[in-house]
Amino acid sequence: MRLILAALIATAAVPAVAQTPGTPSKAAVTPGTYKVDTAHTQVTWTLNHMGFSMLSGQFGAQDGTLTIDPAKPSAAKLDVTFAIADLSVTSAKFAEHLKSKDFFDVPTYPTARFVSTAVVASGNSAKITGNLTIKNITKPVTIDATFVGAGANPMSKKVNFGFRGTTTIKRSDFGVGYAAPVVGDEVKLDINAAFSAE
User: What is the pTM of this model?
Assistant: First the structure.
């Protein structure tokens, strides 16, 4: 009896483990059009800097939508605009250089845009093919995406869900920058995309 009481007391003393609002279940996503969550969507770019180190920076989403029906993933439509003018790196001087005509020419081309053209899904993964436009140059890109999770956001009470994605592009394809191969031409993109019911 003492052992049972001790076990009950010990169990009661252990705090409950909080569950995250989102779960990796597509059932929480209802068919419809969702707005990109600009506060929680980011693209991290990484390239080789002169063979000395790997260098990264980020862009955030400015606007966009995802129209999706989990029962018909191949019919999904994604259209997201990224704020190149708000790019983020660890040096203010470097950020200004990236915004100059040497690289993104932000005064002329303040945004980039990705528009999907095809989605091939398999379980919780998908290949999203679309057109990426940077500096008014459009090239086809395929993103390897993985579903992260979905659920009701406890703050907004609205359905939220998101994906992770990766792809690789070449700076030279979009007229971004110079000095290849001194600075790497190949750029890896790591994408965290979040969406919310309107």
Answer: 0.87
